[in-house]
Specification:
Shape: elongated
Number of helices: 19
CATH superfamily of one domain: lambda repressor-like DNA-binding domains
CATH topology of one domain: 434 Repressor (Amino-terminal Domain)
CATH class of one domain: Mainly Alpha
CATH architecture of one domain: Orthogonal Bundle
Mean pLDDT: 83
Low-confidence stretches: none
Strand content: under 5%
Length: about 325
């Protein structure tokens, strides 16, 4: 997709080749010379209404000016692509009308997004360019959900009304949709999440059970663990044993999930300091019982720190 600095340099070179000053070019376009200066410095892009005339004055096509045919076709209205990346959308969206941007939202691609990356989706869609009002948010988010558009949905999910959010979470769990379940789960209440945890477990969906076990109570995990053992479900036993082990370690570290973010971070800092001191006092005899005890205590501290990191991510992660 196009680069504003490269386009600015191209405009500057073409203007000079045409023996035009910034003021002369601005006068022919009916704009201020400051606007031309901003283009050439890569601060802003020409308005879509100026692109055709600008290209004509400089003796090139819009494609040649922008340096990207796909972007040119979108901007000039010559073509609506079948798919567009978040980065491509963000590049062209400032030049397009809100209506055109809303059309492009439907074709933003989300190939390769997994459950883990959906939870930490870093791409930020330029929704401001779409000019949504508050009444449209839930409807647009639900449309993104139905279209499997994880990128758009990830930005809108926090603005959903409670009824829509709960309904879509139920739908995602029943459909076994890992990415959308992961995105929505952190907004649901504990009773709802535990119900969905049982749904996933009873359906034999290991991946979904793993996601929802993070929010299930110790009793619920223990109950399903025992059931998995009775049914000789090796995969479920492995998933739930790890979860129960983590819950047990959290209890031993005095963490139950009710702490504030500040309390968890303070606890983490204390554990890091305790670990630092512990490592400074490493026993010299690697074969002795003192060394074995030291190694176990180090492992416990490191596990407790990892568990706090996980909990911080579950409760407050992006």
């Amino acid at each position: 997709m196009f680069n504003m600095n490269e386009i600015g340099n191209k405009i500057s070179l073409l203007r000079k080749s045409a023996n035009l000053t910034q003021m002369e070019l601005a006068n022919r376009l009916g704009i201020s010379f400051q606007a031309v200066s901003n283009w050439e410095r890569g601060i802003s892009m020409p308005d879509i209404s100026n692109l055709g005339l600008l290209a004509e004055i400089l003796g090139v096509t819009v494609d040649e000016l922008i340096g990207d045919k796909k972007a040119s076709d979108i901007i000039t209205g010559a073509d609506t692509p079948d798919s567009i990346s978040v980065e491509e959308f963000n590049a062209v969206s400032p030049l397009l009308s809100p209506e055109k941007n809303r059309e492009l939202l439907d074709v933003i691609k989300t190939d390769g997004i997994t459950e883990q990356s959906a939870e930490k989706l870093s791409d930020s869609v330029n929704l401001a360019a779409c000019s949504f009002d508050s009444a449209e948010i839930s409807a647009v988010a639900e449309k993104a959900y139905r279209n499997g558009n994880v990128s758009v949905f990830s930005v809108l999910k926090e603005y959903l009304d409670d009824d829509t959010r709960d309904r879509l979470l139920t739908d995602a769990v029943q459909a076994g949709n890992l990415s959308f379940t992961a995105l929505l789960a952190k907004y649901a209440d504990s009773d709802t999440l535990e119900k969905h945890f049982y749904t996933a477990f009873n359906a034999g969906n290991c991946a979904l059970t793993a996601i929802l076990s993070r929010y299930a109570s110790n009793d619920a995990c223990a109950h399903c663990f025992n059931t998995a053992v009775e049914n000789n479900s090796v995969a479920m036993v492995a998933i739930l044993s790890r979860r129960l082990s983590k819950l047990s370690r959290r209890r031993e570290a005095g963490i139950d999930g009710s702490e504030t973010r500040e309390q968890l971070e303070e606890k983490r800092q204390k554990l890091l300091e305790e670990l630092r001191v512990k490592k400074m006092n490493k026993p010299h005899d690697p074969d002795g019982s003192a060394y074995a005890k030291w190694e176990y205590e180090v492992d416990c501290l490191e596990d407790a720190i990892d568990d706090i990191d996980d909990l911080l991510d579950e409760l407050y992660g992006d």
